[in-house]
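Encode chain A's predicted structure.
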Amino acid sequence: MLHLDEFQGEEFQGYVENVPLSKEYVLRAFLPNQPTKDINFAYNVVNGKYAQAASITGFNASAPLRDTKSLEKHFGSVAKVQHGFRLDEEQLLRFNRPRDDEEKDMAVDYVYQETDDLIAGVYDIEEYLRAQALYSGVLQYEDTENDIQINVDFGIPAENKLTVTVPWSDSTSTPLTDIQTAVKQYQEQNKRRKPVVMHLTSTTEAHLLQNEQIKGQVYGNPTDKRLLTKADLANVFVALGLPPYAINNDVVDVYGQGEVQLLEDNKVVFLGADLGNTYLGPTVEKNYESGIYVVPEIKESNPPGQSVFVGETVFPALKRPKSIVILSV
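Encoded structure for chain A:
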């Protein structure tokens, strides 16, 4: 099946590079992709070339990986994202001997559809890595098979991680005051500039829509029975000079472990501009070029098999970790 021209060299690679995105990746705007031809990509990430504020520590069998080369080797497991699918012997028999052109086209479409899923999976993990940097400031990677644990700290200041006194799930809480406190903290770290946006989930937004402090601003009475709307929230934020908010409910399937929210409920993240980049490093599979790659693999062994692998080497790097404030609510 993979012997067909459609799945060879530049034609298949061109297809993978030009497949339209299956969904919007909100965080690409904050850490846009930046290709690099740096063949020492993993080494330079570990040594701080791409994110001087980041610190990367590793542990093997509960002992620190103090040797930079050792850490670099294992960091490659974090940075390289690759997965694939396999055509088994039964599928190969069916696909390699189609009864007519329609059946052949169906076989080709099947490979394309499976490849599309792989591409989406790579971009999902790319977005997941961005979310770890922006929404947590920490990326933790664990390889249980080799007993490797790597912790990447992107350098968001501890004082930029705040926790409210009264949870927003309590309708008598003071979210407007909490947001003002977070904005003030952001300004102290960013020469009086304000964040450009704050991200939260629909669950967190629902707390705001039932909050008495906000009802007092809108209706003049904190116990008013009328419902608040999203427009009410937006108007209150504008009136008080607070940044606009955006909802991020995106989830990704992380390493086959099931759906993981990119942004946790009961967390608000204040983001500035020009935060950094998502660096795409070179790979052997793409002849030392950067970006997403595809590798068709044909095995004539017994039993025969054919596989398609899609991947890339990727790492999010923050240039301005001070321009992120995380508020746990």
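The two ends are 53 Å apart (CA to CA).
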